[in-house]
Amino acid sequence: MIDVNLELRDALAAMLSPTRVLTRPIERIAFASDASFYRLIPQAVVQPDSVDEIAALFSFSHKRGIPLTFRAAGTSLSGQSITDGILVDISKHWSQICVEEGGAHLRVQPGVIGAYANAILRPYQRRIGPDPASIDACMLGGIIANNSSGMCCGVQENAYHTLHSLTFVLPNGLILDTSAPDAERTLKGESPEIWQGLLDLRACLLAGEKLRERVHLRYQTKNTNGYSLNAFLDYDNPLDMIAHLMIGSEGTLGYIAEVVLNTLPDYPFKYTGMLYFPTVQDAANAILPLRDSGARALEIMDRAALRSVEHLPGAPSLLAQLPESAAALLVEYQDNRADRFEDFLRASKSTCAKLMLLSEPLFTQDVDEQAALWKLRKGMFPSIGATRQQGTSVIIEDVTFPLPRLADAIDDLHDLFQKHGYTEAIIFGHAKDGNLHFVIAQSFNTPAEIERYDQFTIDIVELVTGKYDGALKAEHGTGRNMAPFVESEWGATALSMMRDLKSLLDPSGLLNPGVIINQNPRAHVTDLKTLPVVESEVDRCIECGFCEPNCPSRRLTLTPRQRIVVRREIARQRLASSDLASPADSATLTSLITDFKYAGMDTCAVDGLCASSCPVTINTGDLVKHLRADGISAHGQQTALTLSKHFKTVEQAVRLGTRLGHLAEKVVGTAGILTVTRLVERFTGRNLPKWNPAVLHPTRHIPMTHKEGAEYIYFPSCISRTIGTPSDDAKAPSLIETFLILADRAGVKVWIPPDAAGHCCGMPFGSKGYTTANQDMLHRTLVSFWDWSEGGRLPVVMDTSSCAYTLRSCADDLSPSDREIWQRLTILDSLEFAYDILLPRLEVHPLPVEVVLHPNCAARKLNLTGKFVAISKASAASTTVPYSLDCCGFAGDRGLLFPELTASATSLESAEVNAHNYDGYYSSNLTCEMGMAAATGKPYRSILYLLEQATR
């Protein structure tokens, strides 16, 4: 039962703002899961925007006795970012970032994604030290709080060792910037008990020779289990101690509001190779020689891990032929100097000549080939996720072993997998640091499965800490699953120090309780996440959160992960309703279903970008389209089919409606049209499109072309046929006219079929769930393409990227006969046509202008961003792609039906674009151009307009 505490909600709203206090069931459920296999439902989710509000929340927590837990991206793998108290979401309002000292320092708030920080630093040829595999999704708050590392980071480049200063808030309300001149005096004066307590803890550590030596040795290798006791050895000033104790504290000691990091040189030059060995022992024996030769990355993979990716496209055929005992190392040399490649070549050749290899080592400097090798390595985690049984979680753990004993440790791990029945388990990891990851599939739906995991964990702890004296957590943080075993690794004295540290800074014990310090010996098997079977499109989801940075609705309603989390809760509630012994909460179920329509379905752009970063390539847009289809009656489906068959009339209606809209705008203004629209909505109960000044003007006419001698079929999209004239200039040439001008100027003959009207890619129907109408439209369009192109002889060019992408990815919606036609057609996007065909034949005179681009979702999914940028660079003196490039959320007509989606989706990109006065604004998709124009107030147009101007 998910009760809403109205008194708690009102009290929090009085402190913050009602819009930043989330207590509805759908909101609390959405934040109940992180990337771990634990689940807790918060009483409320709050989104503070200042350190003063953070301090007020600490005070509120103490007065009410309600725990607080901070959460950034929620990609934590060990349950650090969930709570049954108050969850403090800092992903929304903590994203300020500033490069300082010419790139030597980066000042950043905790809501900034790691990859974005590196993108900001790239022009300075700098980067942050930590390089976790989740860097495209995780935020600096988690990177700092977990002391994350990664493939090349090792021990010396993590947040602890690259920290310059930080600003934090303690549970007692103290706000401290460690770089402030009076920081020491402030800490000592306002919190003398903390100042003295830190000195006492340091003295205690220094007094124990064995413990002191143990702490020193533990941090020579990767270790994030427990608190960073090395701070008491590395520093003698309490200010420095507390700053470094906050690193890796997993949000249990205070709130890190801002951090200044010392940046490191970026390494643009890389030399990468995959080495195959007869045995794991042979691979392990190669680690030290390769490390000493200068390799920065050394990724080890056992045979099971290699087997899991041997089916991937582009995987070397050798993988399937490897013996069962084989292993591999992915090796990469990196430097910021091109001339170092000769050194790399000599070092790698000399070292590899002495290794026991199964095949000739193949190193490459080619970026695409390097990406293919890393794709194999990064594809190992999702391989288990994609093939696991429904209802099971994917668990990835990380441990550290002494490097000389790494091969033996891998053998022992394999024995434990067999003992406990994890036959699908794989092992890979950062061999240079003795850091291994293993992946297993685990269900928590029955007591027997929970017991299996419990016994396996106990055996792992004994193996790592007992036999090898290794680290139970190398880089994922202690979390809930290793909190009961901190003493096993550190001993009673060290654990006592950690408890004293927790009590010193958080005496009430209300800050993220149960994480790092936990007296429950079964905490690792408590509050486990069950995964009920829901829709087939998303049952493979492991709730990692990698999809979230790409989602246009993430700052408005739900993310793809949260949509799936809510669907699973609906399934749990429905299961409970059939269990007489456990009556369901019908009010909660009704609330979830009702609220999901807007939050989960109406505001989903179904752009599919979530799949591009999902480890198991889940397209949550497919789920939403499926759910939309389920909600449409037979009559509704028939109506859509009728519209599909009479689509020429629909085009005429759109053209007329747009013309009338522009006339009305001149008479009553945009506000007047919106007022009338909302009155009609209220009267009819239907959601209607909202007018905005960025709506394009009708296409005046389509010029006549001739098929004789045509080299390409030009199929203008339905939107360019109807409203393809720029919104800022009704007298400007239409997109179709501009396309034809460029083709004629390049001497390329194109033909527009005279019967193109009435044909469409089907997206307006398919995205809304009108399955039959979508299939009907696709059939008629592809048959016409076949006829127009003379059986596929002539390529078909489209002027709208989303339409090109739709027709190039529609195989699953086609009948066998239509699929046969489709496979023999060549369908090109205008970006490909302009770059590959037109540009080489045109005389281009770059214009002295600065332009900004919006590579839309479809262009990015078609991998055309590079060609888009190249066209712009050939045509303009300066080209910019925003760092905060996002999906515009316009999604065909979503931006008209739900303009708040586009406003939210474009908020960061719009702010970045409007911070500079550009001479031109370009994309390759008419609806996206409308969306970006509405968001920024700037006249976005197709990149073809820029190319046309530069070739006059």
What low-confidence regions span 5 or more consecutive residues with pLDDT below 50? Answer: none
Oligomer state equals: single chain
Fraction in beta strands? 5-15%
* Neighbour order of strands in the largest sheet: 15-12-14-13-17-18-16
Structural class: alpha/beta
According to DSSP, the number of beta strands is 26
Mean residue pLDDT: 94
Largest sheet: 7 strands, antiparallel
C-alpha-based Rg, rounded: 29 Å
- Taking the alpha carbons of the first and last residues, their distance comes to 68 Å
Shape: globular
Number of helical runs?
A: 41
Helix residue percentage: 40-55%
Question: What does the model show?
Answer:
Helix content is 45%, strand content 13%. α8 packs across α11 (238-246) and α26 (634-645) packs across α27. Among the domains are: 269-381, 2-Layer Sandwich (Alpha-Beta Plaits), CATH 3.30.70.2190; 384-488 and 510-525, Alpha-Beta Plaits (2-Layer Sandwich), CATH 3.30.70.2740; 645-835, no CATH class; 843-950. It is globular and about 90 Å long. The strands form 6 sheets. It has a 7-stranded antiparallel beta sheet, with helices on both faces. By secondary structure, it is of the alpha/beta class.
Question: Helix and strand layout, with pairings?
Answer:
Blueprint lengths: L5 H10 L5 E2 L2 H6 L13 E3 L4 H14 L3 E4 L14 E4 L7 E4 L4 E4 L5 H8 L4 E2 L12 H6 L13 H4 E7 L5 E3 L5 H8 L1 H16 L1 H10 L12 H4 L3 H9 L8 E8 L1 E2 L3 E9 L2 H13 L4 E6 H5 L10 H4 L5 E9 L5 H12 L9 E3 L2 H12 L1 H8 L4 E9 L5 H15 L5 E5 L4 E9 L3 H21 L18 H5 L1 H14 L54 H18 L8 H17 L6 H5 L6 H11 L3 H12 L1 H38 L27 E4 L2 H6 L11 H12 L3 E2 L11 H4 L4 H18 L7 E3 L2 H8 L7 H8 L3 E3 H9 L8 E7 L3 H5 L3 H11 E5 L13 H4 L1 H7 L1 H8 L5 E4 L2 H11 L3 E3 H8 L2
Parallel strand pairs: 2-4, 3-4, 19-20, 19-21, 21-22, 23-24, 23-25, 25-26
Antiparallel strand pairs: 1-2, 5-6, 6-10, 7-11, 8-9, 8-10, 12-14, 12-15, 13-14, 13-17, 16-18, 17-18
Helix pairs in contact: 7-8, 8-11, 8-21, 12-18, 18-19, 22-23, 26-27, 26-31, 29-41, 34-36, 36-41
